[in-house]
Design brief:
With 334 residues, this protein is an all-alpha fold. The protein has a domain at 105-279: Orthogonal Bundle (MetI-like fold), CATH 1.10.3720.10. The protein is built from 16 helices and two strands. It has helices spanning 3-29, 36-46, 54-64, 70-78, 97-132, 137-151, 154-167, 189-198, 200-226, 229-236, 241-253, 255-259, 261-279, 284-293, 297-325, 327-333; strands at 88-89, 95-96. The chain has a two-stranded antiparallel sheet with strand order 1-2. A hairpin with a 5-residue loop joins strand 1 and strand 2 (95-96).
Length: 334
C-alpha cells in the first residue's frame, strides 16, 4: 500500500468518526436543563427587563423548533452542512452561524497556528540542546523554567502579561487584536502594523505551556535516542558529535512530537479560548462562552464540532507527516 492509498484510507475512516462526533456534540450542548427560551427569560429577568410571559417563551420554542424531538433538531442542523449552512445563532438575533464564523474563525486559526509555530520553534532546539548537555547548569535552568511554564495556566499568564505591560512597559497593545480606531475598518497597512503589535501577547500566553511541555518531551526523546545502538555505531564510524546529534538523533527524536500534533491542536485551541476571554479577543473563545450561557445549541454545537473536527484533522495530519518523515513507516507502506 502506497502513501496515497494510506492517506485516502485515513480520510475515509475519518468520515464516520466526524458523524458520530457531530451527534455527541449536539447532545452535549443540550444536556443542561432548559433551553434557549429559558435562558432568554432568565436573562431578561436578571437584567431588569421584567418577566417574560409563558406564551412568549412558547413562541420562541416554536419559532426555533426547540419543542421538537432531538433527532429532528439534529437533522435540521446537519442537513445544511454540505451547503455551508450551520443554522442560526438564536442569541444573536437570528444571524446565520456561518456568517459569524466567517468573521471569527480565520483569526482564531491564524492565532492558533502561530502559537503552535512559536511553541515548536522554541521547544525543539532547546529540548535538543538540553538533552545533549545533560545535567549542565543551563540544563537545570531550562528544566526549571519548563516546569514553571507547565504549571502556569494560559489564562493566568495572560493576566500576568497584562499586568506587566500596563504597569511596567506602559504598553497599549494588550487586549483585543487591534486598536479601537481600526475596528470595523478594512485591512490597510496601518491596521496590519497595529495588528502585529497586538499579536505577541496572545501568542505567548497561548503557546508558552505547549513550549514548556514539548521541550520536556523532546529532551526525553533525545536522551532515549542517544542510548540506541545505531548512535553508538555512528560515533564509531568517526562522525562528529554534532552530526550524530543533529543529523541522526534529532530525526528520530522528533517523530513522537509529530505524532502529538493531533493532541497539540485541541490543547492550544482550548487555551486560546480562555486567553481570548481574558484579553477580549475577537475570536471564537468569547463567542463560545456566550453561546453556552445562552444555551444557543446551533452556535455552541457548531463551534464544538469545529474543534472536534480540528482534532480529527490534526491526527490525520500527524499520521501523514509521520509516514513521510519516518523511513520505517514509509518502508512498510511501500
Amino acid at each position: 500500500m502506497g502513501i496515497l492509498s494510506y492517506i485516502l484510507q485515513r480520510i475515509l475512516l475519518s468520515i464516520p468518526v466526524v458523524i458520530v462526533i457531530s451527534i455527541i456534540c449536539f447532545g452535549l450542548i443540550q444536556l443542561p436543563p432548559g433551553d434557549y427560551a429559558d435562558a432568554y427569560a432568565a436573562l431578561a429577568s436578571s437584567t431588569g427587563g421584567g418577566s417574560v410571559s409563558t406564551e412568549y417563551i412558547e413562541q420562541i420554542r416554536e419559532r426555533y423548533g426547540l419543542d421538537q424531538p432531538f433527532w429532528i433538531q439534529y437533522w435540521k442542523w446537519v442537513k445544511g452542512f454540505p451547503e455551508g449552512d450551520f443554522g442560526i445563532a438564536m442569541s444573536l438575533q437570528g444571524t446565520p452561524v456561518a456568517e459569524i464564523l466567517k468573521e471569527r474563525l480565520p483569526m482564531t486559526l491564524f492565532i492558533n497556528f502561530w502559537a503552535l509555530i512559536f511553541a515548536l520553534a522554541i521547544a525543539l532546539p532547546i529540548g535538543l540542546y538540553s538533552a545533549t548537555h545533560k545535567y549542565s547548569l543551563l540544563d537545570y535552568l531550562l528544566t526549571f523554567i519548563a516546569f514553571i511554564g507547565i504549571a502556569i495556566p494560559g489564562f493566568i499568564l495572560a493576566v500576568i502579561i497584562i499586568a506587566i505591560s500596563i504597569f511596567w512597559l506602559d504598553s497599549s497593545y494588550i487586549g483585543k487584536l487591534y486598536s479601537n480606531e481600526f475596528i470595523g475598518k478594512p485591512w490597510t497597512s496601518d491596521k496590519i502594523i497595529d495588528f502585529l503589535k497586538h499579536l505577541p501577547a496572545p501568542i505567548i500566553a497561548i503557546g508558552i505551556a505547549q513550549t514548556s511541555n514539548t521541550m520536556r518531551i523532546m529532551r526525553g526523546n533525545m536522551l532515549d535516542v542517544l542510548r540506541q545502538p545505531f548512535i553508538q555505531t555512528a560515533r564509531a564510524k568517526g562522525l562528529s558529535e554534532s552530526a550524530v546529534n543533529w543529523r541522526h538523533g534529532a530525526r528520530i527524536a522528533v517523530n513522537p512530537i509529530i505524532s502529538r500534533i493531533g493532541v497539540y491542536l485541541p490543547e492550544i485551541i482550548a487555551t486560546e479560548m480562555l486567553v481570548s476571554i481574558v484579553l477580549n479577543l475577537n475570536t471564537i473563545g468569547p463567542l463560545f462562552y456566550d453561546s453556552l450561557i445562552a444555551q444557543d445549541m446551533y452556535l455552541a454545537g457548531t463551534i464544538l464540532l469545529i474543534i472536534s473536527v480540528i482534532l480529527v484533522l490534526g491526527n490525520l495530519l500527524a499520521d501523514i507527516l509521520l509516514a513521510i518523515s519516518d523511513p520505517r513507516i514509509k518502508h512498510e507502506l511501500m
